[in-house]
Design brief:
It comes from Salana multivorans. The protein is an alpha+beta fold. It has helices at residues 16-26, 42-47, 49-54, 80-95, 110-121, 148-162, 177-185, and strands at residues 6-10, 60-64, 70-77, 133-139, 167-172, 189-190, 198-203. It starts with 5 loop residues before the first strand and ends with a strand.
């Protein structure tokens, strides 16, 4: 039987639930994070939903012709500093989420505390190596090996370049071997490690 075809398109609000599922199922260094936290949706509240809220025009999805739901996505902001300020001032408080200081300080809650701390602070408000945009990309295993990741990246980068953005960065955890190998393959350069994961930068031709 012929394999299904991966197609790219712009995000639609009706995709949200499917994308939350993709986010959770890839959040543990590319593997399924279901059950790692008391509330699985915390992953999406930090790494997906704020981008869909603030920048739906920079969200693209991949779907397969034999599946009814989106099976991967890329989301981004074109201004990390402004995004981080909005995240902390508006997005995080609007969720009514507990602060990191309210989560038990023990090994069982260490990951939750880490993520909540990031939620309160927002993404790093800087532009490493002159790259003010940043992105998150997640694909279910069924979409991988079809060129969908590269195609999503090129689609987003073309949009950012058309807006005059000089560069985009992404950070991968040191345990995420797939991401560490992926970014150099799609035109990103690795910056010196800073202890908080590996940051990659792709410089963009001005549109």
């Amino acid at each position: 039987m012929a394999s299904s075809t991966a197609r790219l398109r712009a995000f639609r609000p009706a995709d949200t639930d499917a994308l939350v599922d993709v986010c959770v199922r890839t959040a543990d260094a590319g593997s399924d994070a279901t059950g790692l936290l008391p509330d699985d949706r915390l992953w999406a509240d930090i790494y997906l939903l704020p981008y869909l809220e603030r920048h739906p025009d920079l969200a693209f999805v991949v779907e397969l012709d034999d599946a009814s739901d989106a099976a991967g996505y890329i989301v981004a902001t074109d201004d990390t500093a402004a995004f981080a300020e909005w995240f902390s001032r508006e997005w995080w408080p609007s969720l009514g989420r507990p602060r990191a200081s309210e989560v038990p300080d023990d090994a069982a809650h260490a990951l939750e505390r880490q993520l909540l701390g990031r939620g309160e602070q927002g993404p790093d408000a800087w532009a490493p190596d002159g790259a003010p945009a940043h992105l998150h990309i997640d694909l279910l295993p069924v979409t991988q090996g079809r060129g969908a990741g590269r195609a999503l990246m090129d689609l987003l980068c073309a949009e950012l370049a058309a807006r005059g953005i000089a560069g985009v960065h992404a950070t991968a955890g040191t345990a995420n071997a797939g991401a560490l190998a992926f970014y150099p393959r799609v035109g990103f350069d690795a910056l010196p490690p800073d202890g908080g994961g590996q940051t990659f930068v792709r410089r963009l031709a001005q549109g």
